[in-house]
Design goal:
The structure is a single chain. It contains 8 helices and 13 strands. The two termini are 25 Å apart.
Length: 267
């Protein structure tokens, strides 16, 4: 009998916060007749980590305190501190998955000096190509982040992917597009089943539940198809983890009491 590899442990690490209104988080009206009242709907910022034995993947790298000040966000913890609190030394991490190149997912350039970075071909093309001639398209990108990725490429530290691919037993990448041209999500086999770290395929549970994408969207049709794909890849809708929803910290337990409100274990 073939033995399956150990399931992955999965962690969401909150590093920043932003107070905002519900109208800022949806494109278009709720076609299902939901409450149209506009009220506070804050956003949390996460990086994710998955562990199985001595194998570690970090998913996205967040931004630093300087970028938080520039963008008007509340910086809470360096992502490296969060990783350290669950036994991961950022300086020794060998694999970082970048779901997309927006500023809140690919900063902190000095945190992972030993890592190779996994990126979709289309995202590098998008962030360095003709679409960036349009100021509106550049809004969620930072030139220093893009240049840092180009430097990693020339240092032999970028691995490109074209669509779906398994990186390790029980851990795979899946292209989605929509929010950004090369957006990808991560499917992980855990002890509770197949979990999908959707990143910005859906910022909030409500984006998926209401079928309403986040307003920053490269391709609306792809964004809507991304909801369908995330659900199809996961064992249930409850196994899909959105990229920015504060409810993640409410729905999943902290690894220890002192990490409550900072880190949740998703597996």
């Amino acid at each position: 009998m073939t033995m399956l590899p150990s399931p992955w442990e999965v962690y969401a690490i909150r590093y920043a916060h932003h107070e905002r209104m519900a109208r800022e988080n949806f494109l278009g009206p709720d076609l299902h007749g939901g409450d149209a009242h506009d009220g506070p709907m804050p956003m949390d910022y996460f990086v994710w980590a998955v562990k199985s034995g001595d194998r570690v993947f970090v998913i996205d790298t967040g931004f630093d305190e300087h970028m938080a000040q520039r963008r008007g966000r509340t910086f809470l913890h360096c992502p490296g501190e969060g990783l350290k609190s669950i036994g991961i030394d950022a300086a020794k991490v060998e694999d970082v998955i970048i779901t997309h190149m927006h500023y809140d997912h690919c900063g902190n350039h000095s945190l992972f000096p030993a890592a190779r970075f996994h990126l979709q071909d289309r995202e590098m093309m998008f962030s360095t190509g003709r679409f960036m001639c349009h100021p509106h398209m550049r809004i969620p990108f930072e030139v220093d982040d893009v240049v840092a990725m180009v430097r990693r490429l020339y240092a032999g530290r970028v691995v490109f992917h074209d669509g779906g691919e398994e990186l390790a037993p029980g851990l795979s990448l899946h292209y989605a597009g929509g929010h950004s041209m090369g957006l990808q999500m991560v499917r992980v086999r855990t002890r509770r089943g197949m979990v999908v770290l959707a990143s910005d395929v859906a910022h909030y549970y409500a984006n998926m539940e209401q079928g309403r994408p986040y307003p920053i969207t490269y391709n609306v049709a792809e964004a809507l198809e991304g909801f369908r794909l995330a659900y199809a890849l996961a064992d249930s809708p409850d196994h899909v983890i959105p990229g920015h929803d504060p409810l993640v910290l409410e729905r999943y337990p902290a690894p220890s009491p002192e990490l409550q409100g900072w880190i949740s274990r998703l597996d």
